[in-house]
Amino acid sequence: MKIIGLALAFAVALPAPDPAAAREYRLGSLTIDHPVLRVASPVSKTGAGYMAIINRGQTADRLLSVVTTASARADLHGTIANGAVMQMRAQTAGVPVPKGATVKFAPGGLHVMFIGLKAPMREGATLKARLIFEKAGPIDVEFKTEAAAGSHQH
Predict the structure, then answer these.
(1) pTM of the predicted model, to two decimals?
(2) pLDDT tens per residue across span 8-50
(3) CA-closest candidate to residue 66, choices 85, 91, 41
(4) DSSP reduced 3-state for 118
(5) Using CA atoms, how far apart are residues 125 and 144, in angstroms rounded to an integer?
(6) Which residues 6+ apart lie within 8 Å of 98 measured at CB?
(7) Measured in Å, how far apart are the chain's first and last C-alpha atoms?
């Protein structure tokens, strides 16, 4: 009986699982996995958003845009190597999400450029945004702020 009481006391003392900790959002056959915002410093006016979009469906889709009130603009960008120079290019036609594929937004590739951030984005802070897909429609997500590689946030 003592063991059951101790186990119960221990279980009650554990924090409840945080559903947001999984950091995964579902919209029909689409999964948006681990949206992250990286900024060079808490006072940066721009940040890059990264995530993975997984399409488990039988139909291709397209991420048309990202909308937020946390910055003046949110643009879809791709990074293209032009010789030894890396250039950002706006993805004005959106980003295709083929059926059965995972599209990764990662450093050196696709990303959401948040331009004109309206508030300091310290590590751990979240930026609320709406992703708008051509077929699946809109979904609200939160990009959790992480320090950019090589930066030192405190």
Answers:
(1) 0.79
(2) 333 333 334 344 455 899 999 999 999 999 998 888 999 999 9
(3) 91
(4) coil
(5) 6
(6) 55, 60
(7) 48
